[in-house]
Amino acid sequence: MVKVTDFSNMDMNENLPWDLVEDLMVFMRNDPAFYRRHMYPMMLNVQEAVKNGGKFSKKEMIPIIDAAVKKYVKKFNIKKRPEDLLADNDKIEIINRILEAEVENFKKGEY
Description:
The protein has 111 residues and is mainly alpha-helical.
């Protein structure tokens, strides 16, 4: 178990002691304000593209990943710059994992 005090005094160059990709995904799904303002509208766009037989560019989701990182850093007082927290390949991994987890919901028209 990680205590808030365990990472509030961290050096900015120190690696985070948890799986940031997984934690950010949980944050994006479970923070009500973020989900309502960012995730749900993006999932609607993906659903619409799938429904119309079109392709959806994963790059369209990068702005919500960036927004999530900014809110995450602020909410949890992470002493790192948001733009330094995730590499591009981590962002793509988050996008792939979110879309994989939602495939069935897209097929059912849940959004």
